[in-house]
Amino acid sequence: MLSLLQNKLIEAMKNKDKPTIMGIRNIIGKIKAKKIDKGADLTDEECLQILNSSAKQLKESIFQYEKAERKDLADIEKFELSILEKFLPEQLSKEKVQLIVKETIEKTNAESIQDMGRVMGMVMKEIMGAADGKIVKEIVQEELS
Predict the structure, then answer these.
(1) Same structural domain for residues 74 and 108?
(2) How many whole angstroms separate alpha carbon 102 and alpha carbon 106?
(3) Residue 120 to residues 35, 109, 113: CA-CA distances in angstroms?
(4) CA dist 42 to 35, 38, 50, 103, 127, Å?
(5) What is the 3-state secondary structure (H, E, C) of 69-105?
(6) In total, how many domains does the chain have?
(7) How far apart are CA 54 and CA 139, in angstroms?
(8) Is 0.85 surpassed by the pTM of this model?
(9) To pair with 37 at 20 to 30 A between CA atoms, which of 47, 69, 102, 129?
(10) Rounded CA gap, 22 and 57, in Å?
(11) Quick one: how far is CA 87 from the chain centroid?
(12) Would you give the end-to-end CA distance of the chain in angstroms?
């Protein structure tokens, strides 16, 4: 994942695309910081978790900036999010997530909302960032109710 980001950074530098350069450098910086904290190379899963976390933070920032009527700041965050999303897996449709949740419930013999944590853990591990956790949570609650 890191090598892909570095290749994209080189490409952006050749094209003199300053906003993209800044966005990719920010992503690489977050990954390298986590790598230093861990003291070892990160797996692709760990890199994806960092990207998902960053995307979630950017979406929240966009929401807050738009709420405060700061379109200028929201636009900057939207641009960075658009760069970040190029490196995230394609998002699953709600129907596909529902299907995965139903299969997981059957596998685990989950019967009530008390089994939600177990189901959520398995589903989130299976989809690995390909769907928003809020959507997954809503579907799991709906299916277990």
Answers:
(1) no
(2) 6
(3) 27, 13, 11
(4) 6, 8, 10, 30, 19
(5) CCHHHHHHHHHHHHHHHCCCCCCCCHHHHHHHHHHHH
(6) 2
(7) 23
(8) no
(9) 129
(10) 17
(11) 9
(12) 39
Residue 70 and residue 139 in one domain: no
Tens digits of per-residue pLDDT, 37-95?
999 988 888 888 889 889 889 999 999 999 999 999 999 999 999 998 888 888 888 89
Round to whole Å and give the CA distance between 60 and 22.
20
At 91-132, the pLDDT tens digits run: 888 899 999 999 999 998 888 888 888 989 899 888 877 888
Are 43 and 27 spatial neighbours (Cβ–Cβ below 8 Å)?
no
Spatial CA neighbour of 49 closest among 114, 103, 130: 130
Q: Token pair of 39, please?
A: 């003291």
Q: With contact defined as beta carbons under 8 Å apart, do 113 and 144 qualify?
A: yes
One domain for residues 98 and 72: no
| Backbone conformation region of residue 112, classed left if phi is above 0, alpha if psi is from -120 to 50, else beta | beta
- Tokens 């405060």 appear where? 68
Full domain range(s) for residue 100: 94-144
